[in-house]
Amino acid sequence: MKRIVILISGRGSNMQAIVRAAREEQWPAQIVAVISNRSDAAGLEYASNNGIATEVIPSKQYTTRESFDADLREAIDRFTPDLVVLAGFMRILTPDFVAHYKGRMLNIHPSLLPDFPGLHTHQRALDAGVKEHGATVHFVTAELDHGPTVARATVPVLPGDTEDVLSARVLEQEHRLYPQAVREFIDGTYRMENGRVVFADVARHLDKK
Ligand code: GAR
Q: Which of 27, 119, 136, 149 has its CA at 20 to 30 Å from residue 185's CA atom?
């Protein structure tokens, strides 16, 4: 059984989608812990109701990024994960922390990267007048919201869209995309090598596109 630790900061709907998929599809993997930097993260309750260990490392109580990341890393490593999944974890991570989980930490970002890294992606997509928007799963590297792309989902931007309507359309896709990408990591479908995503079976991957 592979071991997955999920980090959240809020509602945790992507975390829930992953927990559900792991259970329903009987993944050869277990979500061993959900860790949050905020004690009021709504997703924590879902995790504990589902028998998953939860922990809070309250980022507000730390004066430096380094000290927070050091304690977070210790908390994560106690669960000896094969994969760390950032699911709405709203923290900028230090290069040392990122390096420690090189090739075994994924993030989902609500835009078609490299467009709109950072916050307020849906409103920025609307303001920019793009016709397509979406979400990207990528390996985490030192540069915020960069890192090699594992999977993307695209949605249309429609006339009259508001930030709420567009974010709901993207989120629905995130809930499909992220569990699938996590599962494929667990299955060894792809890995990160020399800063790139390498698929174990390139022919099959191209076939799926
Ligand atoms: C998701 O839309 C995720 O893509 C985004 O936060 C939301 C979390 O929702 N992540 C980022 O913006 C990271 N930069 P959730 O807590 O319901 O999964």
A: 119
Question: Is 13 annotated as a binding-site member?
Answer: yes
What ligand 1 atom has the least distance to the C-alpha of 145? 14
pTM higher than 0.90, yes or no?
yes
Distance of CA 21 to the CA centre of its chain: 15
- In this predicted complex, what is the ipTM? 0.99
Find out whether the beta carbon of 87 lies less than 6 Å from any atom of ligand 1: yes
Structure tokens, 83? 């994969």
Give the contacts of 166 (CB within 8 A, at least 6 positions apart). Answer: 122, 125, 126, 133, 155, 157
| DSSP 3-state of 91 | coil
Q: Are 84 and 103 in contact (CB under 8 A)?
A: no
**pLDDT tens readout for residues 159-193:** 999 999 999 999 999 999 999 999 999 999 999 99
Catalytic residues: 109
The tens digit of pLDDT for each residue in 107-136 reads 999 999 999 999 999 999 999 999 999 999
Omega before 179 cis (within 30°)? no
Q: Flag whether 51 is marked binding.
A: no
Nearest to 183 by CA among 16, 25, 5, 43: 25
What is the number of the ligand 1 atom nearest to the C-alpha of 107?
13
Measured in angstroms, how far is the CA atom of residue 22 from the centroid of ligand 1?
19
Mutate to test the pocket of ligand 1, among 171, 172, 173, 182 (most ligand atoms within 8 A of CB): 171
